[in-house]
């Protein structure tokens, strides 16, 4: 059986992109694979966080996992920071990672911008920690969005470098899982930019906590174009193509079938249908999230249990890594 590992940074405001691009896919994987889904709180602090907000967001994202259909009995749901192997293995792997590999990572350049000399080390070495996340459990497959493919390729390179250094095929080379429509959900205000929780405009995204009225209004105000009908062309019609992707992913259908059904209709009619479908799919999730967030005792119990299960796996492998590296047993 394949071992799947993935996670989301618990920084609040989970949105439709998180659901369609990640969590919904995880639900489909949990019956066929061994799955570990983390709350990536170590990654979250690469930018400043208010401690109380981070704690509350970690519980909220855990509630979202469960409300979306991830079963904590079938899967391991755990906070990344509760498993010390992530940081410890990250150091070991960092000692096998050439600076040139990290210098090629585009996400650091995008996030640091012109202020890279003031950016924290954690933002720069983020991809090595991500490699430790994956390799620490010997995960064989990682569901990733298009923007994370480069980091997964680096994780494969780091695994290969470690294996060559110690002359054995210890770490598997993890494979990416990129499935179905809407692997990358774009902003409702700009079809060329990814939907993001950090976007200043709340109208750019559908939050999992939005009311039905808010969802309808946001789709109504979503950017469109002056061309007639509904058609798919990411280069010419990025906003229209994004809405088609979202509809296809929510309805578990194909882009082609969406265009066949709505191609002759105008934007307003299509947006209305998309809003209705989104409300139908998201309303039950939102209701359950609200109930789960109130029960912090249950959420913390899920996280404690998940941390224990994750530690059992990771500590076993890291003990083998320490022996291979030559660390003394005490």
Q: Any overview of this molecule?
A:
This protein is mainly α. The chain contains 13 helices and five strands. The protein has helices at 16-29, 41-44, 51-67, 85-94, 99-103, 106-112, 121-135, 149-165, 212-221, 238-251, 255-262, 267-294, 296-325, and strands spanning 3-8, 34-39, 76-79, 141-143, 175-177. It has a three-stranded parallel sheet. A two-stranded parallel ribbon has the order 4-5. β1, α1 (16-29) and β2 (34-39) form a beta-alpha-beta unit. The longest helix has 30 residues, at 296-325. The protein is globular. The model has no long low-confidence stretch (mean pLDDT 93).
Low-confidence stretches: none
State the end-to-end CA separation.
34 Å
Please estimate the helix content: 40-55%
The largest pleated sheet is described as: 3 strands, parallel
Number of strands: 5
* Radius of gyration, CA atoms, in whole angstroms: 21 Å
Determine the mean pLDDT. Answer: 93
Number of helices: 13
Please trace the helix and strand order, writing H or E for each element. EHEHHEHHHHEHEHHHHH
Q: Tell me, what's the shape?
A: globular
- Structural category is mainly alpha
| Biggest sheet, spatial arrangement of strands | 1-2-3
Beta-strand residue percentage: 5-15%
């Amino acid at each position: 059986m394949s071992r799947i590992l993935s996670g989301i940074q618990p920084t609040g405001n989970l949105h439709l992109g998180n659901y369609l691009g990640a969590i919904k896919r995880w639900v489909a994987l949990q019956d066929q694979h061994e799955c570990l889904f983390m709350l990536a709180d170590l990654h979250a602090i690469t930018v400043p966080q208010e401690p109380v907000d981070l704690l509350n967001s970690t519980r909220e994202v855990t509630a979202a996992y469960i409300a979306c259909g991830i079963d904590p009995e079938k899967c391991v749901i755990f906070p990344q920071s509760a498993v010390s192997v992530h940081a410890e293995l990250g150091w070991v792997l960092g000692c096998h990672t050439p600076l040139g590999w990290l210098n090629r990572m585009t996400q650091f350049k995008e996030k640091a911008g012109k202020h890279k000399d003031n950016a924290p080390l954690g933002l720069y070495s983020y991809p090595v920690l991500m490699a430790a996340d994956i390799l620490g459990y010997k995960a064989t497959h990682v569901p990733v969005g298009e923007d994370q493919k480069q980091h997964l390729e680096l994780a494969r390179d780091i695994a290969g470098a470690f294996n060559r250094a110690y002359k054995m095929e210890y770490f598997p080379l993890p494979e990416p899982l990129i499935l179905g429509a809407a692997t990358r959900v774009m902003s409702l205000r700009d079809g060329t930019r990814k939907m993001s929780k950090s976007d200043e405009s709340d109208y750019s995204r559908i939050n999992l906590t939005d009311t039905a009225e808010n969802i309808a209004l946001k789709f109504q105000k979503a950017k469109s174009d002056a061309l007639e009908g509904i058609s798919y062309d990411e280069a010419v019609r990025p906003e229209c193509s994004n809405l088609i992707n979202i509809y296809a992913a929510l309805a578990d259908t194909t882009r082609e079938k969406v265009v066949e059904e709505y191609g002759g209709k105008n934007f307003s009619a299509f947006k209305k249908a998309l809003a209705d479908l989104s409300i139908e799919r998201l309303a039950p999730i939102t209701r359950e999230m609200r109930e789960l967030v109130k029960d912090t005792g249950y959420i913390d119990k899920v996280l404690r249990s998940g941390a224990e299960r994750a530690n059992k796996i990771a500590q076993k492998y890291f003990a083998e890594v320490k022996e291979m590296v030559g660390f003394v047993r005490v």
